[in-house]
Amino acid sequence: MWTYYPDLLAKPVPRYTSYPTAAEFGDLDTDHYRQALRHAEGDVSLYIHIPFCEKICFYCGCNTAAAGRRQRLESYLAALHREIVHVASLLPQSARVRRIAFGGGSPNAINPDDFQRLVDALFFNFAAPDPAISIELDPRTMTREWAAVIERVGIQRASLGVQTFAPHCQEAIGRVQSEDCIVQTVDWLREAGVASLNFDLMYGLPGQSMHDLEDSLQRTRVLGADRVALFGYAHVPHIVPRQKVIDDSNLPDQRERFAMAEMGYSYFATHGYAPIGFDHFARPGGDPLARAAFEGKLRRNFQGFTDDPSDVLIGLGASAISSFPHLLSQNEKNSGRYRMIASQDHLAANRGIRRTADDRYRAAVIEQLLCQGRAQLGACLMREGREALQPFLDRGLASIDRQWLDILPEGLPYARTIAAIFDGYRSPSSRKFSSAV
Ligand SMILES: C[S@@+](CC[C@H](N)C(=O)[O-])C[C@H]1O[C@@H](n2cnc3c(N)ncnc32)[C@H](O)[C@@H]1O
Ligand code: SF4
Questions:
Q1: What atom in ligand 1 is closest to the CA of residue 243?
Q2: Which distant-in-sequence residues (6+ apart) come within 8 Å of 216 by Cβ?
Q3: Which of 60, 147, 282, 286 would staple 227 via disulfide (CB 3.0–4.6 Å)?
Q4: What is the pTM of this model?
Q5: Cα 160 to averaged position of ligand 1 atoms, centre (Å)
């Protein structure tokens, strides 16, 4: 049973899908990115961003736009092909692509033949012996042809944007999709051989009741999701203008959000799923994410919690973020400008931050706290964090034993807030982030 302490959740905190977070990125000399690619020895992972969706949802914080004109899509894909060739040519001989993730937007906003060509280009240009391939899919635009290409390519992992099954919430967030459409998508993907199927769900939606949420959790389980990501809706219209359409008078308040997060946690924990970090759940047994959590090998990257052990992630496409031990970089966000840059055979990374030794140290502490629930602190961080940690220690949410800081089970909803204590860039009143629950 979690206890709600509003004072501990008063400040918005980052999701820490990287540290430093993207809020710290500044202009980047592309040469740093080129050098990082040249030194990316060994196992690397690729992320390919498709910034298009058939229809844009009001709440969406992702970098995406309506698929619209065919010509815009084609020129984006042409630029992406150029970037693939360019980036692959810079990698050292020893680099091996072990994972390929397609995300967006909605990769299935492009047509299946274009997708097949993209996959062929990746295999042709990168050394990729038997990589694990995953894809994010919008069920509203799933087709039999897409299922066929997923089977042909051998995609094992897929993630569906489900959000909520409640029709009145779907209306309020501009994301109407029938249960039939989700059931059909699940059937197609299972027949295509997808072994690990994730559902993205959201709580804290306009007009969403506890009952609505519980009903969505139940339907998710019954449909056999292997994994679930249960996100708290981040309502930040000052950063994401498309959210202004959402009636915020109808949003659950923070106490209700807290109760929803708790209900989600206990629902999955008592219905055959292992909690992974603070917002993911996975069926134990075969699922690699659950195995990684169990073995203490869980990691955090731009896609959330992951079992990907690689220290190098190369992002391709507009706004895609790359991560190297000494550098975080981001491609040009605007897809029109990205098309221009990549089609002229320039590297598209123009924002980012070079990671100092202090950044890397803090990054490891933050990642361990979020993934393993504990971290070993050096004397410096212990001293620095002591005062801010006290309210968590006093309320039994965390404990300290010599150099070890542990987040206790009751402290889980406060994990991001505790991790933020070790963020060297945090200003006390940042508006850039969302609530920790
Ligand atoms: C790239 S989309 C998933 C695939 C596909 N585009 C779809 O929606 O079906 C990424 C996920 O981010 C989550 N998301 C988007 N905007 C959000 C927000 N403002 N707050 C919380 N989660 C959000 C949604 O759960 C969404 O499924
Ligand atoms: S939630 Fe998914 S489908 Fe909706 S706009 Fe965002 S990326 Fe596109």
A1: 19
A2: 162, 164, 165, 166, 201
A3: 282
A4: 0.95
A5: 9
Instruction: Decide if pLDDT at 27 tops 60.
Output: yes
Which of 5, 17, 21, 37 lies closest to 349, judged by CA?
A: 37
Would you say the CB of residue 138 lies under 6 angstroms from ligand 1? yes
User: Using one digit for the tens of pLDDT, what is the confidence trace for 345-360?
Assistant: 999 999 999 999 999 9
- The amino acid at residue 197 is L
202 lines ligand 1 (CB under 6 A): yes
Q: Write the class of the CATH domain 9-354.
A: alpha beta
In order of 30, 248, 302, 315, 345, the CA distances from 37 in angstroms are 11, 44, 18, 11, 15
Return the ligand number nearest the Cα of 158: 1
Strands 52-53 and 65-66, how do they pair?
parallel
CATH number, domain 357-420: 1.10.10.920
Residue 415, ligand 2, Cβ within 6 A = no
Tokens matching residue 51: 């910034």
**Would the CB of 106 count as within 6 Å of ligand 1?**
yes
**Could you tell me the residue ranges of all domains in the chain?**
9-354, 357-420
What does the alpha-carbon distance between residue 113 and residue 183 come to, in Å, rounded to a whole number?
Answer: 24
